[in-house]
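Ops channel
N.P.: pipeline sanity check, posting one input/output pair.
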């Protein structure tokens, strides 16, 4: 909903939402270890994921791709 609210199309917002949650999970796993990641920890790392995405957009998208919706 947040991505749609800032102007992404519905499909782009869904894809970015999935991507940002995955990035937050990756950051949480780096910080807590893979076995320590829970849904709450992903939620707690969302703001950090957004900051990382804003700072390093080109670098992050060079390594990862947005999910494809079918």
């Amino acid at each position: 909903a947040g991505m749609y609210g800032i102007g992404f199309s519905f499909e782009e917002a869904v894809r970015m939402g999935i991507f940002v949650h995955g990035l937050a999970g990756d950051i949480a796993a780096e910080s807590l270890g893979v076995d320590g990641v829970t849904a709450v920890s992903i939620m707690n790392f969302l703001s950090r994921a957004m900051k990382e995405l804003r700072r390093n957009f080109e670098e992050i998208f060079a390594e990862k791709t947005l999910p494809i919706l079918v």
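N.P.: looks fine end to end. The radius of gyration is 12 Å.
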